[in-house]
Amino acid sequence: MLMLPTFRNDERVRLVAAAAPRAESRDAFVAEFGGRAYGTVEELAADPEIDAVYIATPHQMHADHVEAVAAGGKHILVDKPLAVTLDDADRMVAAADAAGVRLIVGPSHSFDPPVGLARQIIAAGDYGKVRMVQAFNYTDFLYRPRRPEELRTEEGGGVLFSQGVHQIDIVRLLCGGRARSVYAMTGAWDPERPTEGAYTAILDFEGGSFANLTYSGYAHFDSDIWMDDVSELGGCKDPASYGVARRALCDLDPEAEAQLKQTRTYGTGAEPPRPEANEHFGPIIISCDRADLRLMPGGVEVFGDETRSFIKSPLDPAPRKPVIDALVDAVHRDRAPVQTARWGRASLEVCHAILSSAARRKPVTLTRQTGIETEETQL
User: N or C: which end of the chain has fewer CB within 10 A?
Assistant: First the structure.
């Protein structure tokens, strides 16, 4: 659903087939895009007209579906997180390698245009090295309609696997990728939603930079007020909508809540939100030697030694265009972005390390990290 505005507005992509268990979704796809609709991923993977497959199934299904699609010789865009378990992540890396296909993990907010702009500013070197990153986000995530497994940590539920991986991806991208250790605390404060709803983590990186990541999904404070009242998906946020997430769940049992979530899926008549600015993942401040960079939906604000400026990042008609850029490069140029399967596995390792550190009250050393590879090392 959230990729639809991009698919509809990027002429480099043509949707020719889909797989979904719900007949309503299959029928809606054929009605809008034509092509073919399958009941299984295996049938989709065997379709000879397909160059690449976007896997947007529940987290715990990703490994099986990646293996099927890779075996069919298709390049892959798989929703974050790469998987729930590191064993599944290993399977996915191996499947893509064995089949000789590119596997891209996204859309992640690390693809957001202001993040890419910040990377360019850092790479130019005018402000020196990245020394510290502060990233925080307060949302209503835990109180949006959920399926039962989305409230069970062991099945990929809670804020870490669905939300924390965005923040981790962004910070790793800004700090060079190779985190060395994590020290973290987590919060699970609502017995009716018995999974992690908040965390704070400190990451240190090779090269000496460090980052503080904080997230809360408990639907109280909303950090979008510090992002010009622009929502995560780029829409304008009405302050009068405060509390709508919790109110929508009042008196719903788990089955009714799962049905409410189902009404937001493709084929039900629901439409994705219309963005008016770039997507974002909360306030992010990057401290360099000679400037602080503040990421905003409209671009990057630079606080230098003596001057303050704003570098714009306009909204493209295809809101997630950088994701399609990566897919086109994979299919037509055999080039991979930063967000490969190994990159996704490294970010997933940080998710698990946050849980482990919080449980043990100790730092956790990371062993599966990968840096930002050059094109030469990717090919």
Answer: C
Contacts of 159 (CB under 8 A, 6+ apart): 141, 142, 195, 196, 197, 198, 199, 215, 216, 217
pLDDT band for position 373 (50/70/90)?
A: low
> Is the separation of the CB atoms in 179 and 350 below 8 Å?
yes
Residue 27 structure tokens: 């029928």
Q: Are the C-beta atoms of residues 319 and 234 closer than 8 Å to each other? A: yes
DSSP state of 314: P
Distance (Å, rounded) from C-alpha 245 to C-alpha 142? 9
Residue 190 to residue 200: CA distance in whole angstroms = 17
Instruction: Give the CB-side neighbour count of residue 336, counting CA atoms within 13 A.
Output: 25
Res. 376 pLDDT band, cuts 50 70 90: very low
CA torsion 257-62-11-19 (nearest 10°) is -70
Q: How confident is the model at residue 163 (pLDDT cuts 50, 70, 90)?
A: very high
48: which residues sit within 8 A by CB, 6+ positions away?
A: none
Closest by Cα among 137, 140, 138, 145 to 168: 137
* Burial of 58: CB neighbours in 10 Å, binned 0-12, 13-18, 19+: middle
DSSP 232: T
Give the phi and the psi of residue 33 in degrees, each rounded to 5. -110, -10
Query: Do residues 229 and 237 make contact, with C-beta atoms less than 8 angstroms apart?
Result: yes
HSE-CB at 215 with a 13 A cutoff on CA atoms is 29
Give the span between the Cα atoms of 328 and 79, in whole angstroms: 17
Q: Rounded to a whole number, what is the largest CA-CA distance in the chain?
A: 60
Q: Which residues contact 189 (CB under 8 A, 6 or more apart)?
A: 197, 198, 218
The strands making up 52-55's β-sheet, listed across from edge to edge, are 52-55, 75-78, 103-105
Tokens read off for 24: 């309503």
Contact 288, 128 (CB under 8 A): yes
